[in-house]
Amino acid sequence: MIKSGAAILGAVAMSVTPTTNIPAQASNANGTVVGNLTLATLAMPQYADGRSRTIRIWTPKAYDPADTNRRYPVLYMHDGQNLFDASTSFAGEWEVDETVSALMADGYRGAIVVGVDNSADRLNELSPPWPRNPGTPITAPSGDKYASFIVSTVKPYVDAHFNTLPGRDTTGVGGSSMGGIISFYMGLTYPAVFGKVLAFSPSFPLYVKRDYLARIAAIDFSPAGAATRLYLYSGGAGDGAMSENGIAKSLPAVVSALKRSGYPAAQVKSHVWAIASHSEGFWAAEFLTAFDWLFLTDSDRADMAAATLAIGYGDGDNAGNVTSNLDLATRWDYSAKVAWKSSAPRVITARGKFTRPKYPTRVTLTATVTVGAQTRTRTFEVQVLVR
C-alpha cells in the first residue's frame, strides 16, 4: 500500500470537462484523490435504452493540458468508483492514483488512468457473450456493447480532450472480477487497440470452460501484434468454484491454451497470491507489480533506478562525508548495473568500493546506471574520509 505517501505527493486538484451534450459531474473535493480527477458523463449509443455513464479521468498532479508535447500512456479500467477515492468506493479503493504518483515521484514519466463507472446492470455489461454455467446471475450479457462503448466512445473522447499516447503499445485495459473477465475479452477482441491487459481475479468459472478454451484455440496469436501483453492474477483464498481459489485453478488452462495458439510466453504473466481474498485491498496491493510489468519500459526503469540511486553518508559530525562503500541498491532494482568513476584517482573502484585515500578528499562521483540497452548517469559531490 502506498497511501501513507499521499500527503507528500500533493493536494487534490479537481477539474470538470463537459461533454458536448451531457453536463459533467463535479468530483468529491473531500475525497482521497491524489492528483487531478475529471468527471464526465457520456452517452452509450451502443445500447438502445438511452443509458449513459460517468467516466473518471485521472491525470497526475504535474499534468499540464497546455503542454501537448508531453503525452501519456492510458489505462482504461472498469468499476471507476473504486479506483481513486475511498469515499466513492464500494469496499475500499485500489489506490491507483497514489501508486502512479509514487512511481512518478521516483522518476517515472507518468500515465493517465480512465475509470468507467459501473451500474446496476454491471453483471450483464461486464459479461462477454459466452455460454454460462447453470445458476449464474448473468441474464442478458452485453459485454460486446460495453466493450464497443469504451473503444468507440470513451477512448476517442479521452484522446480528443487529453494529452494521450493513443497507440496500442501505450493503451491498456484492466479490472477485477467481472472487470477482469471483460478486460481479457477486450484484449482478445481488440488487439489493435489494447496492447496491455490487466485481468485480476477474472471470473472464468462463471463460463463454460470448453467454450472459452475453444475460443482461445481459434485465434492465431503468432503474428506480430496479435497478442497483447497480459497480466493474469488471482488470490488463493476460499473454497468453491467462484472463490479466489476456484478462479486461480482456472488460470493454468487459460495460459496453456494461449500458448498452444502461439501466444508468446514473454507476453503473458500469471500470478497467484495464495493468501489473497476477493477484495479491493489485495487488488490494490497487486496493482503496482502489474502496472510495472505492463507499462514500464527499460527507459522508464533506467530513469527510476538512476533517480533513486543513493550513497551512504556519515552521521553526526561526519554528515555529508562518505565513510563506507556506496549503497548500490535503488528502490527500483530492475537488475540495474551500476559503474562508478571518481574525479580523483584511487578513491573508488568501478563497483563502488572505496580505497583508502591518504587525506580526506572531496570528489565528484559519477554513476553510470544501465538497464537493458538504456544508460543514465548521476553525479554526487562528496567528501571521502580516511578510515
Topology (SSEs and partners):
Elements: E1 12-15, E2 35-43, E3 52-59, E4 74-78, H1 96-105, E5 112-116, H2 122-125, H3 143-161, E6 171-176, H4 178-189, E7 196-200, H5 209-217, E8 229-235, H6 244-260, E9 268-273, H7 280-295, H8 298-307, E10 321-322, E11 337-342, E12 361-371, E13 374-384
Parallel strand pairs: 1-2, 4-5, 4-6, 6-7, 7-8, 8-9, 10-13
Antiparallel strand pairs: 2-3, 3-5, 11-12, 12-13
Helix pairs in contact: 5-6
Description of the structure:
- The structure is a single chain.
- The protein is an alpha/beta fold and 387 residues long.
- The protein has two domains: 294 residues, Rossmann fold, CATH 3.40.50; 76 residues, Sandwich (Immunoglobulin-like), CATH 2.60.40.
- The chain is 25% helix and 22% strand.
- The chain has eight helices and 13 strands.
- It has a nine-stranded mixed β-sheet, with helices on both faces. It has a four-stranded mixed β-sheet with strand order 10-13-12-11.
- Helix 5 runs parallel beside helix 6.
- The longest helix is centred in the middle third of the chain and has 19 residues.
- It is elongated, with a radius of gyration of 24 Å.
- The two termini are 40 Å apart.
- The N terminus is likely disordered.
